[in-house]
# Entry
Amino acid sequence: MSEVHAVRRGLLRDRCAAAGSAAALVSRPANVRYLAGGAPPGAVLLLGPGEDVLLCPRAPAGEPGHGRPDEALRIVPPVAPGVDPVVAAADLAAASGAGSLAVEEHDLTVVRHRAIGRTAPRLRLADLGRLVEQHRIVKDEEEIGCLRIAAEITDQALGELLESILVGRTERHLALELERRLVDHGADGPAFATSVATGPHAGQARHLPSDRRVEEGDFLSVRLGADYHGYRCQIGRTFVIGTAPAEWQIELYDLVFAAQRAGREALAPGAGYRDVDHAARHPLDAAGYGESLPPRTGHGVGLEIEEDPQLAPTAMGKLDACVPVTVGPGVHLPGRGGVRIDDTLVVRPEADGGPELLTMTTKELLAL
Amino acid sequence: MSEVHAVRRGLLRDRCAAAGSAAALVSRPANVRYLAGGAPPGAVLLLGPGEDVLLCPRAPAGEPGHGRPDEALRIVPPVAPGVDPVVAAADLAAASGAGSLAVEEHDLTVVRHRAIGRTAPRLRLADLGRLVEQHRIVKDEEEIGCLRIAAEITDQALGELLESILVGRTERHLALELERRLVDHGADGPAFATSVATGPHAGQARHLPSDRRVEEGDFLSVRLGADYHGYRCQIGRTFVIGTAPAEWQIELYDLVFAAQRAGREALAPGAGYRDVDHAARHPLDAAGYGESLPPRTGHGVGLEIEEDPQLAPTAMGKLDACVPVTVGPGVHLPGRGGVRIDDTLVVRPEADGGPELLTMTTKELLAL
# Structure
């Protein structure tokens, strides 16, 4: 893997040099991990002007879940207690003769940015912007391999839950059980806080598990995902509890399913972000649910569970091959509940068989 | 509770007005919660110049774990999609005739701060600094009541684990089980990622659970805490696995125990932060472990698991009554393991019986 990270850093260095900065300071945790291979919490990465240096607030050791730093990196562990690693990095950049330093202004607080300026007053500070995030959008096959394993683990955890008895159990307990099963199957942890929503909660975009118990006749919607070697996927499914769904439940389910399928089918290299969103949004809009829809119907996944691109009505840009995204529209009827169906897929050209579905759990309306 | 939050906001407004700002924008999540009573993720609070307004990225509803906003607040839910709530707040402050706005420069990124300036160019931006954090240090009895319940829950979860069979189980599973038990006993969730460290990992300050299994003869150190209504406590204990601890284990345990007791006994209104740290650090230093000690031996707890004060060698300031802190020194011997003992206590005057211990689990060296 170490070579991969060196190539990524080289690419970033070239882009920075072209923009007039001999050195760059990367502080956003997922960006640091992308370029360093692994890093303890709080570590920052200085690229150039000399060798690349990972500055850690403490020695990077024995930290499962954070990966191992690339061996080609010089590691400064730990930075002196009480010293912010970004300040130490700026100091080092100035001492190495850098004239300017590009920093991540969308990550650094005003206070940290000012501390850098005070430490190295002769260093011209530029904005690196979201350059690393842009590089992260298209994944290589090793990254997609991690996402594929994350999705397999997620399917296994969900599949086991569906075989157990659900009526009478609380949302909180079901969520904790799902997270335990993710870890049982090899996840480094949950990719995000597992959502389990029953009855009137079902279908809400970001419901946090409560003490409500599963009842006969409920919709039950779950959203979960595994973190495998830092890569995070997402699945969302909705079920009904009991022997037979009600008429309104079948209708709502079919509608959301059709919308989600339309979104999935719109995934292709060259498709506009907003066009994919439109494909998933339009059926729900036409059925009169436009007002209550969330601002986007999907997003990129990778080292963060929510990354670029955003699949939203005003999003600019087009999909490339090898971009993993979620497609997950949903409808929530206040007081009654609702439906969400969410998959993680990788954009692939038609010639390769079209979008690759990573989350395989059935999307039939199961009565549990 | 609503009156409490209005009083807190009034106090902050007065301090801001005295410093020349008619309006303040609070963005750090724990600070927003402290002043608003509850807030959905991403919400920010605008204090003055007119009424206080909570600006939410989406409607605050059905969100256990985030509390309910104070009813005296005007709520703007949701801010238009794609608009940063801090920008919407600055807009509102300018429209309400504020000449200056104090913002939390230690929380806002450079990009968000600049966006505020662009939206409201005539608004003079000042720094609110860590004023809300300072107000949060001394807790009222209702806050301490929440911490007391959080500690009870934590003790129950840990107590149950100690009754179960540990040999052969992985750190990861033990950590997940502890977190499930916290929720079983009424926690809103874990206060922080539970740490379970066995054998050579034991005693590390921030070990994340791995797949290592508990073995006979191991030290086992755990650190966990419950979040109850937003308030977070912390306990750390170290045990030995098997029938009888080895000589070196007993010696190391006794040393850390003595250090931790010295730290606890130093807690009193008027005691310097650094003096408490010194009390806990000195016995370990004198025994030759000075080099490897973490930079602090304790810290404040409340709406965040790590807040002011810091109990560290260079920390300035003195304890007040009703300040809850952790006291948790530890020693880790590379390759062999180590000991950490950590309690949450509330500083109380001698006349009230001295420091109030919240985390009650025994600190005897148990062989499990």
